[in-house]
TrEMBL record:
InterPro entries: FAD-binding_Monooxygenases, FAD/NAD-bd_sf, Flavin_mOase-like. The keyword NADP applies. PANTHER family: DUAL-FUNCTIONAL MONOOXYGENASE_METHYLTRANSFERASE PSOF, L-ORNITHINE N(5)-MONOOXYGENASE-RELATED. The lineage of its organism: Eukaryota, Fungi, Dikarya, Ascomycota, Pezizomycotina. The keyword Oxidoreductase applies. Keywords: FAD, Flavoprotein, NADP, Oxidoreductase. Transmembrane segments: none annotated. Gene3D superfamilies: FAD/NAD(P)-binding domain (3.50.50.60). GO terms for molecular function: flavin adenine dinucleotide binding; N,N-dimethylaniline monooxygenase activity; NADP binding. This is Cyclohexanone monooxygenase.
Length: 549
């Protein structure tokens, strides 16, 4: 039965971003609620329950910084957090701030329409609920909508076919014949975790990637005491850095060092663990200088050759492309292929042609008998998270539906958060946001958002009318152009992946991330605030046109 709600703000999503947005807006006195299509909080960490799911960011920075007590006292044990541990942490935050009573689950948003007369959004949900709000905050995640390839015959498979982002908790893989499609961040975690448990494991590899050891181990008491003592400095360093992962990002250039020093540092990075640190924590230009990148590829290919004993498996797993995708790390991925029950199938050479009732067939006519097929095939990223929602802005009509517009023209935003024509709609970590560790990126976005909303509330109190927060088309165009130019100046642009909007067949290619670094992103936001929000229309940005007053 339909229920009408009248609030100041609605937050859609209860992952890292949604929880902090709900907390922050309520703290400012705004009557705010959060909804989620899931049955509980967690966002990414609610859905991605596949075996081996782990956050590959160091655990002491994979948490919020806003609550010093929580930061210092919430337990830390190992260098990385598993999916259940992240979920437990988020639950703890929600309980601590008593936020659950402001949340509604199993409530999928289907659409929203802006009313320019009342200056409110009417947000519709599958449940029949309609929320009338001044501010609509989308915290739907960067990687939410699964990408499942449309392989002929997939419906006929009589075993179990699952995408990693909707892993059924009751699914048993013990002693079964399992096939995994995809060997990126998710695929390598699944393969490593299930290899010792399954009867046989066929890994269908298209474009193999480079992965380095994660270096996961318990924090030592000395490390823990150092972390606890240094938290304020660590967080201010992370906020000022490029990717906010907690390691120094040296400015030195790879080829400025002698070959011996280069290999010594690469070896140290390999031994130390972490894919993100390997790519960004040794040198400044691995994803800019092609010659440097190629030398790193040689180093990594040498490592693979040293681990994978079987020449056929080794050949399938050895990448030929540049090292320029979201970096990976693992807890024994290459080693898993030394097991007799684990096989590497080259689906670049012989693509998958069909799924049959009992398995997968490839172009060379081989048929692999399987009980379970795991799609570790990633996501329709960023703008893809808005699929299935019709968001109509100023002017209304089909042309103004956000998702249709984005699919036609590519997503354009201002600062990854605001969209021209869609007043008071805010995207947390939306298209063209900064590429960085999600918790500090989220805090950055939400803090800016709360400031601008507070300013809008002050203006509204003065004028007696709700104030619109909407970027100028010029500011939006410039920002989107900056993000694109940045991606194109790196080697990421040369290797298709979701980071450059090239992973889903038929999707318009675009550059979904600002690669200028978190620190620079924060400075840009601070300047925007100091300049009095000049990138925005109406009284907020200083414009005095009648339409916006
Ligand atoms: P992904 O990086 O997009 O990789 C998808 C994989 O599926 C690739 O190996 C791809 O092969 C393969 N694939 C897709 N369609 C295929 C087809 N038709 N046939 C054969 N192979 C196919 O997805 P993901 O691994 O889920 O990772 C996405 C992002 O999630 C990561 O970049 C990361 O940001 C996040 N993530 C993070 C963690 C963490 O530890 N923090 C863990 C998991 C995921 P090609 O390479 O040939 O395209």
């Amino acid at each position: 039965m339909s229920q009408e709600h009248h609030l100041d703000a609605l937050v859609v999503g209860t992952g890292f971003a949604g929880i902090y947005a709900l907390y922050s807006l309520r703290k400012k006195g705004l009557n705010t609620k959060a909804i989620d299509r899931a049955g509980d909080i967690g966002g990414t960490w609610y859905w991605n329950r596949y075996p081996g799911a782990l956050s590959d960011t160091w655990s002491h920075l994979y948490r919020y910084s806003f609550d010093r007590e929580l930061l210092e006292n919430y337990p830390l044990s190992r260098k990385y957090l598993t999916q259940p541990e992240v979920l437990e942490y988020l639950r703890h935050v929600v309980e601590k701030y008593d936020l659950r009573k402001h949340m509604q689950f199993d409530t999928a948003m289907t659409g929203a329409k802006w009313d320019d007369r009342t200056r409110t959004w009417a947000v519709r949900c599958k449940t029949g609920d309609v929320f009338h709000v001044k501010y609509l905050v989308m915290a739907v995640g960067l990687l939410h909508t699964p990408n499942t390839p449309d392989i002929p015959g997939i419906q006929t498979f009589q075993g179990e076919a699952v995408h990693t982002a909707s892993w059924p908790v009751e699914l048993s893989i013990s002693n079964r014949r399992v096939g995994v499609i995809g060997t990126s961040s998710t695929g390598i975690q699944v393969v490593t975790a299930i290899a010792p448990k399954v009867k046989s494991l066929h890994v269908f590899v298209r474009r193999p990637q480079y992965t380095v050891p994660s270096g996961d181990q318990p924090w030592t008491p000395e490390e823990l005491s150092h972390i606890r003592k240094s938290y304020p400095q660590m967080w201010s360093d992370a906020f000022a850095s490029a990717i906010g992962m907690g390691f120094p990002e040296p400015a030195r250039k790879f080829l400025s060092l002698s070959p011996a020093d280069r290999s010594r540092i690469l070896e140290d990075l390999w031994q130390g663990g972490s894919g993100l640190r390997f790519m960004f924590g040794g040198f400044a230009d691995l994803v800019i200088d092609e010659a440097a990148n190629e030398e790193v590829c040689q180093f990594l290919r040498g490592k693979i050759a040293g681990i994978v004993r079987d020449p056929q498996k080794r050949a399938v797993l050895t990448p030929k492309e540049l090292y320029a995708r979201r970096p990976l790390c693992d807890g024994g991925f290459y080693e898993a292929f030394n097991r007799e029950n684990v096989f590497a199938v080259d689906v670049q050479k012989h693509p998958i042609t069909e799924v049959t009732r009992t398995g997968i067939r490839t172009a060379d006519g081989e048929h692999y008998e399987l009980d379970v097929i795991v799609f570790a095939t990633g996501f329709d990223a960023m703008d893809g998270s808005y699929a299935g929602m019709t968001i109509e802005g100023r002017g209304g009509g089909q042309n103004q539906d956000l998702y249709t517009q984005w699919r036609r023209d590519g997503p354009a935003t201002y600062l990854g958060m605001f969209v021209a024509g869609f007043p008071n709609l805010f995207l947390l970590n939306g298209p063209n946001t900064a590429f960085a560790n999600v918790p500090p990126l989220t805090e950055t976005n939400v803090d800016f958002l709360v400031d601008i909303i507070c300013r809008a509330e002050e203006i509204a109190a003065g004028t007696g009318r709700p104030c619109k927060i909407e970027p100028t088309p010029k500011a939006q165009q410039e920002w989107t152009g900056i993000a694109r130019a940045m991606v194109e100046s790196t080697l990421f642009a040369k290797v298709p992946s979701w980071i450059v909007g090239k992973n889903v067949p038929g999707k318009l290619e675009y550059s979904p991330l600002f690669l200028g670094g978190l620190g620079r992103f924060r400075s840009i936001l601070a300047e925007e605030k100091e300049r009095g929000y000049q990138g925005f229309v109406g009284p907020l940005g200083g414009a005095k046109t009648q339409a916006h007053l």
